Amino acid sequence: MPKSRIRKKADYTPPPSKQATSLKLNNRAWVAPVMLALFLVGLAWIVVFYVTDSSLPVESLGNWNIVVGFGFIAAGFGVSTQWK
Length: 84
Hints:
Helix 1 packs antiparallel against helix 2. The relative contact order is 0.16. This protein has 2 helices and no strands. The chain is mainly α.
């Protein structure tokens, strides 16, 4: 039976060294505190509205205070898209 040919493997060549490139790193440390603050402000706005029988936080808004509270919460979700 004929013997198969042995293929010579290529010598090991290390990968090219990485050059130091200036990466623009964005500091996103502000995202989590702002997001949580907006969530808590929205929740507090709605809770205060219900606890005070619609006399606080802004009496002239009436039931629109609920929309304002949910607006803060929605803004918190909007900020959360910046979190990496």
